[in-house]
Amino acid sequence: MDLKMKVMLVEDDAALADEIRQFLEKWGYEAVVASRFDDIVSEFTRYQPHLVLMDINLPFYDGFYWCGKIRAISDIPIIYISSKNDDRDKIMAIAQGGDDYVEKPFRLELLKAKMEAILRRTYQYKVKGRQYFGEGFYLEEDTALLVCHGKKVGLTKSEQKIIAKLLEQKPQVVTREELMMELWSTDEFVSDGTLTTLICRLRNKLKAASGGELICTKKGQGYYIV
User: Fold this and answer.
1) Helix (H, G, I), strand (E, B), or coil: what is residue 100?
2) CA distances from 54 to 13, 64, 80, 93, 168 (A)
3) Which spans in the chain are helix H?
4) In what order do the strands lie in the sheet with 100-103?
5) Regarding the domain delimited by 129-225, which CATH topology (the fold level of the hierarchy) does it fall under?
6) Contact 162, 139 (CB under 8 A)
7) Per-residue model confidence as pLDDT tens digits over 57-82
8) pTM for this predicted structure
9) Where in the chain is the domain with CATH 3.40.50.2300?
10) Which of 94, 149, 158, 160 has a beta carbon 3.0–4.6 Å from 136's, enabling a disulfide?
């Protein structure tokens, strides 16, 4: 079952809300934008999101008010996104039940990283069980499948171990010794030559799926994912 994480955006700047929505959808989230700023709780109840992104300056009532109302009925994560940078506002945000605070302007990648950290802590699993290479291209951990824009490629247990380690350390270099230790943890003996063969096979699978080279070699050091 595809467990799609749903994010509710409570942001009255339509252009910013749409930018965030499109960014999150590219990374596999289901993003919905609030429209009833006089009745956020009703929309929250209807959408049943896994996480809320909450602006502070809103029509009718501010984000502190709505956070308190949501907290009365739910303990889902709430991240404030606001141009207010006074420490008193940040203290108020946490006091009203917020889980984190991101100041505008912010990088969308930073927002995504904060969301994923909170989602992991809250729901105790990686978002959708996927590790992403980029837009539309990811490793599906439960099924050991590579998915590239809908095209699925099967992986062996050893191949999955290697790709997961490379993605975990991305963009840093992972040494051959580290990869071999990762494979030995599965009780499978892997020689230096076997590792070379596995890397070559993985490169071919990734290239066939994506059309490009994704595993690069750092001479004398190891491998990394671009």
Assistant:
1) strand
2) 12, 9, 5, 10, 30
3) 14-26, 40-47, 63-71, 87-95, 108-123, 157-169, 176-184, 192-210
4) 30-33, 6-10, 51-54, 78-82, 100-103
5) Arc Repressor Mutant, subunit A (1.10.10)
6) no
7) 899 898 899 999 998 888 889 999 88
8) 0.54
9) 6-125
10) 149
* Cα–Cα dist 2/63, whole Å: 31
Position 13, amino acid? D
Rounded-to-integer distance, Cα 69 and Cα 99, Å: 15
**Of 84 and 156, more confident:** 156
CATH class name, domain 6-125: alpha beta
Phi and psi angles of residue 165, each rounded to the nearest 5 degrees, phi first:
-65, -45
Is a pLDDT exceeding 80 seen at residue 2? no
Strand pairing of 151-154 and 174-175? unpaired
pLDDT on residue 79: 93
Give kind and range of the element (H or E) at residue 219: none
Q: Where in the chain is the domain with CATH 1.10.10.10?
A: 129-225
Per-residue burial over 175-203, b = 16 or more CB atoms within 10 Å of its CB, e = otherwise = eeeebbebbeeeeeebeeeebeebbeebb
Radius of gyration of the CA atoms of the chain, in A? 21
